[in-house]
Amino acid sequence: IAQLWGNRPEDFISAIAEVKDRGYQAIDLNMGCPDGTVIKNHGGSDLILHPADAARVIAAAKETGLPVSVKTRLGFNNLDTYKSWLPFLLQQDVQLLTVHLRTRKEMSKVPAHYELIDEIIAMRDAISPNTLLQINGDIADRAAGLKLVQEHPGIDGIMIGRGIFNDPYCFEHEPKEHSLAENLELLRMQLDLYDEFTANFGPMHFQKLKRFFKIYVRNFSYASDLRMALMDTNTTTEVREILAQFDQEWAAHKAASVTA
């Protein structure tokens, strides 16, 4: 699934045709992103303020023949906006609606409004019963998501956002302890994916990759030292070199601890 944002229908028609050729099977329309740059360019949660544009974008996306979903928030500045905004989206007959249970103004600074879930389910059932409903906001892991579904019959799925930064294994069916080696192997896999994407689609912004290092490098001796070293890198090759050096030093450290 490719997630796209913007407000010009003609851009979506051309972009979706391209991602369809690359093998993507569905399109998710981002109508909830709170980023200032995205909003300035009339995408993300800015569409909450311009429902007519939102409708045109959805209609254009549907013309491509791919399944279309929408991710959004409860409102831009005012929480009560959900009472008109969500029914409006449901009237567009999308396959899946994902609702982040906060407004754009609230960002992630307040608890997600779980108290509104049942009302939102009722909206879906009344307006577009065939639309799947997915909930996002403060869901830490798979177990928390399943608990939410059990408490609110009618939810079809859950989305985990910030939870992945606290636990890269948050989707596991049976949570368990994971070793440092497993964590660093996940980091190496992300480096490989980064390089693969760059080779296929052009250069990426390496600095943005660094925000993910803290997911894997934490909760062990010398974690802060390793993170600092990784943050000074400028290429995936440099990251791999530092990880290789760390592996050697960590093995020596464990060997010395056993001897002692």
Structural descriptors:
alpha/beta, 260 residues, 2 domains, 12 helices, TIM Barrel, 12% strand
Describe the model.
Strands 1-2-3-4-5-6 form a 6-stranded parallel β-sheet. Helices cover 49% and strands 12% of the residues. The protein is α/β, with parallel strands linked by helices. Helix 6 links the parallel strand 5 and strand 6 (157-159). The protein has 12 helices and 6 strands. The N and C termini lie far apart (52 Å). The chain has helices spanning 9-21, 36-40, 51-62, 82-90, 117-127, 142-151, 163-166, 180-201, 206-209, 213-216, 223-231, 236-259; strands at residues 2-4, 27-31, 68-75, 96-103, 132-136, 157-159. It folds into 2 domains: 2-166, Alpha-Beta Barrel (TIM Barrel), CATH 3.20.20.70; 180-259, no CATH class. Helix 1 runs parallel beside helix 3 (51-62) and helix 8 packs antiparallel against helix 12.
